[in-house]
Amino acid sequence: MKSVQKMFFVSLSIAFASLVNLGLLGSDFVVSAGIIIFVIFLYHYDDMSPVPLGILSGIMVFVMRVVVHELTYGDAFNSAVTYIIEFIFYIIYSLFFRLFIKTESKNNLGVLFVALIICDFGANFVEGLIRYYILTKPSLVEVIPSLLVVSVVRSVTILIVLNALNYYGMLLTKREHEERYKKLLYLTSKLKSELFWIEKNMENIEKVMTQSYELFEQIRSNEEKESWANKALTIAKDVHEIKKENGLVVRGIKDITQNELKDSGMEYKDINNILLETMKRESKINNKNIDFQFDLGENFYTSKHYYLMSVLRNLIMNSMDAIEESQNNAKISVIHKIHDQEHVFKVSDNGEGIEEDDLKQIFSPGFSTKINYDTGEINRGLGLSIVQYIVEEQLNGKVDVKSKIGFGTDFIIRIPKIFLEEVTDENIHS
User: Fold this and answer.
1) Which tens digit of pLDDT belongs to each residue from 144-159?
2) Running DSSP on this structure, what letter comes out for residue 350?
3) What are the two backbone dihedrals, phi and then psi, of residue 412, each rounded to the nearest 5 degrees?
């Protein structure tokens, strides 16, 4: 319903723009600005089909011209035949647009410019044929040079307008990024304050561990029995203080993330782009040459963007860990599809794979197959347990894994649309 309403208002805008026109050779052959608006809307709205929009726009332009003629000169009925040909022009132009202008050509201004000239001249030429053979005015040969000039000028005008709109959009994006950067700096400063308390608690934890070990040694050697109770009480008090301070830190971080990060939601295409850029940087930091392939699928809007980003990031990082620095043709793909009212996300890699016995334990907290034998450092193994918790407990979904040694691993996430999608008035498919 909303798409129909949008097409109606777009067609109405085109009809008003068509009132700005130029007559050729003193005839009723009219070149209007409506087609400029027509192309601009098609350029920015990928979900809008050229032919239906061309038909509806042609109808709206016809009605608009007849009404204006009646109010201005009267006797609109006799001039209606002339205006019907404009209706045909929009249909022909939309057919040429569908034939010559593809989605990929929109990003190539040179190709787009040539295609626009072909569409404009072709539609005008067909209109000229109709006028010449049906209405016998004006002479088609006389009009052709003017049609070619008009096609070039109008196509140049369209490119100028599109570039201006794109530049304006870039300025808005830059301003938005600057505001987000300032906000990020502010949030970082607040989080650093909370980090101070975490570091302070680390010292207290070390102190309690020392006290506990001393008490253990005394109990094991059966020494200073009279001090055991006081030392145990001291340890309990210190642990209680650590718990209180940790509680304050957790509450502080929650306040920052809930009150300061007031993002109501995000489109999946933005999540997709953020992940792709950050994962490329992460792979370079880790000296890994990885080919990332992200398939957006159908775009959607969600208020669970932090959850979804955390899930996908953890899975991609897990795939990155499975790829050795020396591996050639390393590849990680993130594919999104919608199937049976579910969002399906598949994160795949061609890394070393996971042993069959380990597959049963990879979602257990603390389990890890990654140990650095040079440093003794071990991956904490919390990533996949967090993934499972978020998917199953927060999003009511399901996570599965398939792996084969030497061939790689596939993680498949299924989340019901009803738990992930949000309704928005904005067009999210453009």
Assistant:
1) 787 788 888 888 888 8
2) -
3) -120, 120
